[in-house]
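re: the backbone from monday

yeah here it is again, tokenized this time
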């Protein structure tokens, strides 16, 4: 299973939905980086992604994007190949 990192906040429904989708695909562990607890992590996320919204999801070194991007990737058949590396 690849390393999955999700930049998130405590009360983000999109983060919950993204995590739910990943878990339904067999993902057991997600490294959550809480940007609401550490402003330096928010700056890091923005520098890596060019985005300010959460979640921002990485599967290994691939930046998947946010929740809508993750669901679109799944609908297009691209999520499972990334998870099955």
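seq for it, each position gets an aa:
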């Amino acid at each position: 299973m690849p390393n999955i990192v999700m930049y998130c906040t405590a009360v983000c429904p999109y983060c919950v939905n993204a995590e739910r989708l990943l878990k339904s695909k067999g993902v057991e562990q997600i490294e959550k980086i809480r940007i609401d607890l550490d402003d330096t992590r928010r700056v890091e996320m923005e520098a890596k992604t060019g985005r300010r919204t959460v979640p921002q999801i990485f599967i290994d070194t691939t930046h998947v994007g946010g929740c809508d991007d993750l669901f679109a990737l799944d609908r297009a058949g691209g999520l499972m190949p990334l998870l099955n590396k």
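Residues 13-24 form the longest helix (12 residues). The mean pLDDT is 97.
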